[in-house]
User: What shape does this take?
Amino acid sequence: MAVISDISLWALFKHLGSWLGNLSRARQQRKRESIEALRAVVIAARHTQAYLRELEDSGQQNHATEANLAGLWTELGFRLNDLGLTKLAKRCDIRGRYWADPNILDADFLQRADIGLERMEQLARQLLAEIETAHSRGS
Assistant: This one.
């Protein structure tokens, strides 16, 4: 049977402490990334609402704005998916596809997809609240 020396035991504890520190930093990083992505959903919803108001007032589509919205929502979908927030990620992806070409998705599909701006902002805020609650319990 192998005997653990004081030096190897010390090295093991040192390694364990380092590993736990790295794990804590990774969790904090993931939390920060999640918060940033969820806040970006709220911001994207506001940009989209402003564009819809402009569209209603002017009656003129702005393809450059729609392309920017398509990219913004699609990028958010990727970020949220990478963070494991898949339900909201899927909604963002659909919203991105919609803005890339509003005629590509039928009204029935959009209704079932539940991608209303208020609903998406509500989901983002709910997830933000859950992160804050988990953080306050962990402190």
In short: The chain has a mean pLDDT of 87.
